[in-house]
Amino acid sequence: MPSESYSIMKIGDIDLGEMPLFLAPMEDVTYKSFRYMCKKFGADVMYTEFISSEALIRDVKKTKRKMTLFEFDRPVAIQIFGHQIDSMVEAAKVAEEFNPDFIDINYGCPMKRIVKKGAGSALLQDVPKMVEMTRRIVDAVKLPVTAKTRLGWDENSKNIIEVAERMQDTGIAALAIHGRTRKQLYAGQADWSLIAEVKNNPRMKIPIVGNGDINGPLKAEYFLKQTGVDGLMIGRGAIGRPWIFKEVKHYFETGEVLPPPTVPEVVQNVKDQLSISLEWKDEPRRAIFEMRRHFAKYFPALPDFRPLRIELLRAEEYDDVMRILDQIAEKYNNTRVDYTGVSLG
Questions:
Q1: Is the pTM above the cut of 0.70?
Q2: Domain covering 18-248 assigned CATH 1.20.1280.260 in the classification
Q3: What are the domain boundaries of the chain?
Q4: Lesser CB count within 10 Å: N end or C end of the chain?
């Protein structure tokens, strides 16, 4: 898709440029080393892992560590979730002290342990509470406030049009929408038609960011043309493929699809991410365990890869991980990673 002209997207006074690419907030994924890799390859906007409001106001050390931000992150949001309005307001105030560029509210997480407490996407079943919570948070902090949500609770209650209008009325600066209901979790295809309805609703004035199933530049182009959203958010499609942001931007600018990286190039990126994790974690094993979620995703669809995959996922020592990575690079020296037909999983 040759370069086209889009309006400049802003969150408050933050200029994000034309068609910014967002890295979606993901628990146990969007920590420092992964954010660094995505920023390196062109992600424009970052989020922390989502932060429990209850843990935050209890001053839980691990939770506050998740909110540590770095200059490479910016612009960056701290995302909070919870079910108690007062706790969420206090959490937003604490988050503001960590100096993010904006604060995001999680109304989209479908995970059972979050939903059963009445947080995340569970609040789509109680829109008045969702609105009141948002309004209170907007009033309590000086930073811009945004929100991320879904189409609705289930197929019979896709209330995103109402939700978007009412959320805008609370004073939020932007809204990100994942194109599934809570009941769908991550199954089936994301429905961007309702995202388009929100974006093209004449009542809507705030920026709308679309999210769901972006697994490469062609899908990004398709969803953008279908909706006209102000920004695109990539989540699971970036796990094991942080260069997806570079691929999308290159395609938007030139109309050219970049060739996929070679396995040795991928191995070097894995080593780079592991190196950042080692700097950030207290001891090597913790960094290695953190990386396991990414290891297999970095090497999809390689022939006869299962033995090396198992060995890599079982390795606990740094030297063993590096040895296995070198084996992978040597064995697949002339192979490019093929993402055709790879599930986001």
A1: yes
A2: no
A3: 18-248, 263-331
A4: C
